[in-house]
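A sample copied in:

***
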Amino acid sequence: MTDPPLQMRAVLVDEPGGPERLSIGNVAMPVPDNDEILVRVKATALNRADLMQREGKYPPPPGVSPVLGLEMAGTIVDVGTDCRDWKVGDRVCGLLAGGGYAEFVVIHRDLAIPIPASLSFDEAAAIPEVFLTAYQALHWLGEICPGMRVLIHAGASGVGTAAIQLVRAAGAVPFVTASRAKHATCLELGAEAAIDYRSDDFAERVGALTNGEGVDIVVDFIGAPNMERNVDCLAVDGRIVLLATLGGSRIENLDLRAFFRKRATLTASTLRNRDMAYKIRLTRAFASTNMPLFENGTLKAVVDRVYDWSDVADAHRYMSENRNAGKIVLRVH
């Protein structure tokens, strides 16, 4: 007779619905494979995907933990036999396919990122998902180069605040759209200009800001409502990187000839359902070049608010109301 699996606490969704469906309960503790490490989670952070999964609109990939949470920071408590580069007690953060809203999580050894000594667990938990997403969009998909101009929609979001900083670090120029109340945050992080998407036509503003030349890259989360103007404000040979369709996915009466006039490239991408090899390459590329920048202050984790994980429902409500500028962190204990 085998022993029952050890239990741990985690945030559970009793059935799809609103934040009131979230509660803390017991689930089986994960066991690391030979190439995995077991981490005691100190902090995790919210992402829009968590809200969609809670509502039953974004199920986890096959074989992935049903527990919410796409990133974490914590301390290693056990290592697989093939994890010679890690030891118990090391502080790590990393990207997850799920399972971050829990006391413990397993992560592949090559997805774990050492936490710089200068960063807290709260700050480290705010890095993996948004900075890896922004790095992928700008460097791998957008092919950013020094001197380029970049328009970042939802500039005060988690990915937006990361993207502003990565654009500046690449020697390029970031413009953003955001609600007026969040402009100061974007400008402090390095945005060249902030455009109020509620009252301004961002394509017209970008035209004025660039003397009619347009931007080389557009990073967009909104989708259909923005697409026509995204093309309008794009420079010739520019690229649109579409990361979500929060505003809608269907476009009526879109004239595709606009793409030909600009010789535009449209790339749509997600990160959660990428295979392990891709995520490892992305993590290693980002960590090797950018984690030192958190030490010297070039980059910073932007934390809007920290909640105790017992208040996870309040944290989800706060995000759903679009009140945050930067990341919302859950402190796990």
The chain has two domains: 7-127+272-331, 130-268. The chain has a mean pLDDT of 97.
